[in-house]
Amino acid sequence: xGPRRGKNINVIKKSSAAKKxxxxxxxxxxxxxxxxxxxxxxxxxxxxxxxxVKALEKEESNTQALLLAAIIQLESGEIDLAVNCLxxxxxxxxxxxxxxxxxxxxxxxxxxxxxxxxxxxxxxQRDLSELPQDGEMAATLxxxxxxxxxxxxxxxxxxxxxxxxxxxxxxxxxxxGAKIDxxxxxxxxxxxxxxxxQNRQDDARECLSKSMSLWADKDMNDPTQIxxxxxxxxxxxxxxxxxxxxxxxxxxERLQKEDDENIDMWYLYGWTYxxxxxxxxxxxxxxxxxxxxxxxxLKQAVKLSSVMEYDNxxxxxxxxxxxxxxxxxxxxxxxxxxxxxxxxxAGAADEWDEIDSDEDVEMDA
Length: 365
What we know:
Mean pLDDT: 86
Order of helices and strands: HHHHHHHHHHHHHHHHH
Distance between the termini: 27 Å
Number of strands: 0
Largest sheet: none
C-alpha cells in the first residue's frame, strides 16, 4: 500500500497536565521521519512504512517523507507505487533533491534513464555550488556525480549501444566523470570496459590498473572506501577478459569472505579455475586439482540458485555444462551431491525459523 493523502493534522502541543491525565502525545513530522529511518536501518520496512504514512498525513507534500515512502516501497517490491511517490517529489521540488532522480534513473531504461540521471547531476551541481569545495559534503557529492556519469555510460554500452552517438556519449560522460572526481575508481574501470569494446586491450589494462590503485590500500572492511560488491564482480569479469586470472582470484577470495551466498561470485570463481586449468603451462596434477576446485564452486552456484531468486538462467546452464564436462575428466566423490543438497535444505529451514515475530510499533513518549 502506498502513502495515502490524508487530511492535514495540526500539531497540538499538549500541556503537561494533559499528559499526566493520559492524553496522547502528538509527534512532529521530524520525529516520525526519525522513527521511519530507524526502522529502515533495522530492515523493518513494514513498521517504518506506518510511521512515514503518519508523517504524510500531517504533511502530504513533504518530499523527505515521500522519498522514504518510495524507498520502502521499492524494498517491498511495489515498484509502481514507489515511482508515484518519486514523481510527486519531482512535481513538488524539480530543482532540488537529487536522490529522486537517481532512483528514477535506476527504474527507467534507455534514454529516459539517461534523462533522469542528468537531472540528478544538475541538482547535485546546484547543491555543490553552495558548499565549501574542500569539505566532506562536497567530496561526497562529486563522487555521486561521477557515479551518475558512469551509470549513463553503462546505458550507452548496453541498452543504447546502437545509438549513432553512443561511443561519443560514452567518451563525454567518462571525461566529465573523471573531471568532477579524479579519484573515482568506477570511472576508470568503466573507461577500461569502453576500451575493451574498442579492442584496445593495453589501454584497458592501464585503466584497470589505475582504478585498482585508487582503493588497493584502503580499509577493506570499510564499504565507504572501496567499490561496491557488484562493482568488484564486474572488475573480475574485466580481468578475466584481459587474461589476468591471478588478480581475479585475489578479488574473488575477498568477495567470498564478504558474502559467500552470491551466485555470480561462485560462478566466476569456478570459471576462473576452469580457465586456469586450460593454460598450456598447467601440469597434469595441477589441472585435475583446478578442475576439482572449479566443479566445487560451480556446483555451489547451481545449488544456491535452487534456493534463492535468480534470473540469469544462461549462467546457471553454463555452470551445469561445465560441471558435466569436468565430471568426465575428474570423477565426482560418491554421494557428494545428495549431502550438499541436504545441507542447503537444512540451511533454508533454519532461516525460516529465525524470522522474528511482529513488533510493537508504538513510539516512545
